[in-house]
Amino acid sequence: MSIPNEALQKILQEIGQKKAFAEQQLVLVRQQKVANSRESRMLQLTGSEMESLPKETKVYEGVGKMFVCTPIPDVQKRIKNETESLKTELSNLNKKEDYLEKTYENSKASIEQVLGGRG
Predict the structure, then answer these.
(1) For a tag on the chain, would you pick the N or C end, based on fewer CB atoms within 10 A?
(2) pLDDT digits (tens, 9 = 90+) for 42-63
(3) Distance from C-alpha of 2 to C-alpha of 117, rounded to nearest angstrom
(4) Any bridge partners for residue 63, and if so which?
(5) Orientation angle between helical segments 72-118 and 5-52, nearest 10 degrees
(6) Of 85, 106, 99, the residue nearest 26 (C-alpha)
(7) pLDDT of 20-30, one tens digit each?
(8) Is 103:23 a contact under the CB 8 Å cutoff?
């Protein structure tokens, strides 16, 4: 049983759009992962610097266009919270990347199957 050309074109177009969307989203997710890793590394370095400082050292955090004196334990707590948040976000990005890779590969295989079945 043969599929009419119009229906075949429509199927190929839909699969192609799905494949292109998955490819675009993969690029975005990978960029987000790189930014996430960079931010995580910055927090790690800041945390290690904070631990090496004497307890009486004044620490300032940027708030908008000004700096506010903040106790070291408060800064360490913020760094810990942000690190946990980034770990959760990275985990979600990894899941999303896996899903998009599978979608991309399935779309690619579907296109090959449709084109292979036609010839």
Answers:
(1) N
(2) 999 999 999 998 988 899 999 9
(3) 9
(4) 66
(5) 160
(6) 99
(7) 999 999 999 99
(8) no
